[in-house]
Amino acid sequence: MIVKEVVVKNKAGLHTRPAAAVVKLASRFKADFFIEMHGSEVNAKSIIGVMSLAAPKGTKLVLKLDGDDEDEAARQLVDFFDQGFGEQ
Question: What would the pLDDT profile of 44-58 be if each residue is shown by its tens digit?
């Protein structure tokens, strides 16, 4: 299992478009993927789960990945968060 902390960097936060993009990217991998915010954890391969976080800019999130391709999944997902979902 890989656990990484990221910060939501884009101005609008984790709204519908980036939530859908996170789910789409995560779905490429076999690894299970969960996002934790303030002690609450959601399945990050579920658009409803990710959107329910409604994480504004500056929110710290914990990404948890577990599976055969967890290393590559973690690398790509952390990069995506670090790039502000391409919206900065």
Answer: 999 999 999 999 999
Burial of 16 (0-12, 13-18, 19+ CB in 10 A): exposed
Query: Which string of b and e fits 23-37 if b means at least 16 CB within 10 Å?
Result: bebbeebebbbbbbb
pTM over 0.90: yes
Decide if 38 is catalytic: no
Q: Which residue among 4, 15, 36, 59 is the active-site one?
A: 15
> Cα separation of 38 and 23, whole Å?
20
The CATH number that domain 2-86 falls under is 3.30.1340.10
| CA angle, residues 61, 51, 26, in degrees to nearest 5 | 70
Structure tokens at 53: 């976080």
